[in-house]
Design goal:
This protein is mainly alpha-helical. It has ten helices and five strands; from the N terminus they run αααββααααβββααα. The radius of gyration is 18 Å and the shape is globular. Bound molecules: manganese (III) ion.
Length: 267
Amino acid sequence: MTDSFSRRDLIAHTLPAMALGAAVLSGVDALAQDKPASAAAPESAVMKMLAAAQKDGVYSLPKLPYEYAALEPHIDAQTMELHHSKHHAAYVTNLNKAIDSLAKLRDEPEIDAAKLSALSRDISFNAGGHILHTVFFGTMTDQTKPGGGGGGDGDGGVHGAINSQYGSLDKFKTHFTKVAAGVKGSGWAIAWYEPVADKILITESGDQDLRMIPGGMPILLIDVWEHAYYLKHQNKRADYISAWWNVVRWSEVDNLYRNVKSMTRRM
Ligand code: MN3
């Protein structure tokens, strides 16, 4: 097994959402065969970013589909620049480092249990950070583009699913906002598509070590680490959460939902 194969394997099988890697790879494979991943699945900005989140089996930082200032006034340019070019980049670097360190550790005459445990946690933390930030950035919208306002009511398949499972978009947003506001310390609120029962489920995570839903795929999420909002909103997390709702790119949440659903419901 080559190094690059083992990394690809890791993408497919061990990242925060197992279905995610499989979904991305099947999308990429479908592209290679010059046919749509699924007749029902529209193009997704997040899927493209995920495809660019590794190069030749090495994790890499995907470009944002907008400028750092594009989310102003809701999320400021400096926060976006630091968040993407420093924080997200560090998760990518540290994920690759942990993989390399584990390869070296396997070559030792005896594997040091404490090192193995620390590196295993590094994998979870940094892979979580890499994937979550990719989906987070990809589901926000360019405020400078006509029609790019976002923040409106959800529409399409995800809207219908939210309405039938949560009663209304408002009830979903209230529930999600409360989860995000209640995260203790650093963490995330995450709405997952869960393919076994075809449901949208909301969880919270500490840091970015997920309390994950195996096989689930994040379709809408908010980073509530202080680095995501402190420059503009200081300690007022609630203000940041309500500003963030203005830049949610519902059309992309819907694209992502349709892609993941069409790929994972084949299970
Ligand atoms: Mn972050």
